[in-house]
Design goal:
This protein is of the alpha/beta class and 347 residues long. It contains 13 helices and 12 strands.
Length: 347
């Protein structure tokens, strides 16, 4: 058996010799190949443990046709990613699931239109096995990019299919945005509120439109002056709240399409001496860590399992990768996760 010099890195030849198998058999086992009998697999794995052998990544890729990495593509600028708890919660869920399957997360951010070419080259270059893409906007080029790259993809959030209806076969994970909005607005009505306003998110994102639709499901003939548009940020929520108060100073409730905008709205109401919830009740959406429970007063909001959605996205992608490798199983379906109203002091 070949001797390992002190401090040297164990070789595949040493593993094969320790296990009493050929180098080809040892390579197939340690690099994830098929067709080796279990007793031999056990011998090779025991030798790997005894010698502390670390498989060569390039060799593993050649055998398995897998890189062991997944791209997470977020169609938002860096400043938004690292200031919005939604993204950190979703990335945390993705990371936990990928880590549990010995898969590396590669984060790709979109600062501007010019970044799409860079991302397209990377995804087409064989660096990753698949992609998880979220925070898509209407006519976003990412679906076309992942399709041209011919890599399995799962979307976070229901995409808009206006660009290419053929992409509808690609699975996605989303919350019941419309249903959650209906519950929130009906709750405000049941409190006796009669002039319920809405601060919506960007009109080029389906989550914002679904939440607006849920609001309108309950308030069918709502005054257009009671609806203002925000951008899913604290400052945009503050601007929209000020706009609503100018147009309808008699409003007595606001359903806000996310918690960050709701925190901005609460700030404006507090600055103007308007009591919450006595004069104006506020309900948000998301139930974000570090936001909903820390507003003044604590925010009544619609909970969606953000971290759980991240884990589910990764799980669907890994299932699709296994299906592509083995030819077994069916293509993963899209999933809509439930939402629930969490009652706190703002309404």
């Amino acid at each position: 058996m070949p001797e390992q010099s002190p401090g040297s890195r164990p070789t595949l030849e040493a593993v094969a010799a320790r296990a009493g198998v050929s180098r080809a058999t040892a390579s197939r086992v340690v690099n994830g190949g098929d067709g080796v009998r279990k007793p031999l697999v056990d011998k090779v794995l025991q030798a790997v443990d005894e010698l502390g052998y670390i498989p060569n990544h390039a060799a593993r890729t050649l055998v398995t046709r897998r890189t062991g990495a997944v791209a997470v593509v977020i169609a938002e600028p860096e400043i938004r990613i690292f200031s919005d708890p939604f993204f950190s919660q979703q990335i945390r869920g993705i990371s936990k699931e990928l880590t549990a399957h010995d898969t590396q997360l590669v984060l790709l951010l979109v600062e501007g239109p010019g970044d799409f070419d860079r991302i397209a080259r990377y995804l087409s270059g064989g660096h990753v096995d698949g992609a998880l893409a979220f925070s898509l906007h209407t006519d976003d080029p990412l679906p076309a990019i992942t399709r041209r790259a011919a890599i399995p993809t799962v979307y976070g959030g229901r995409p808009s299919w206006t660009a290419d209806p053929g992409d509808q076969a690609v699975p996605y994970v989303d919350a019941d945005n419309r249903g959650g909005a209906r519950v929130a607005v009906q709750y405000l009505r049941d409190l006796g509120r009669e002039r319920i306003a809405h601060i919506g998110g960007p009109p080029d994102q389906t989550s914002a439109m679904d939440r607006l639709d849920g609001y309108r499901d309950v308030l069918i003939d709502v005054d257009p002056a009671l609806v203002a548009e925000g951008g899913f940020t604290v400052e945009s929520g503050a601007r929209a709240m000020a706009e609503l108060l100018e147009r309808r100073p008699d409003l007595d409730a606001v359903f806000v399409a996310n918690d960050l905008m709701a925190s901005g709205a609460l700030r404006v109401l507090r600055e103007r001496g308007i009591a919450v919830p006595e004069q104006v009740a506020i309900v948000g959406f998301d139930d974000m860590d570090g936001v909903a429970e820390e507003t003044d007063p604590p925010l009544t909001t619609v909970n969606q399992d953000i971290e759980g959605q991240g884990r589910l996205m990764a799980r669907l992608l890994l299932r699709g990768l296994d299906r592509d490798r083995t030819g077994n199983g069916s293509a993963p379906d899209s999933v809509i996760t439930p939402t629930t109203l969490v009652r706190r002091a703002s309404a």
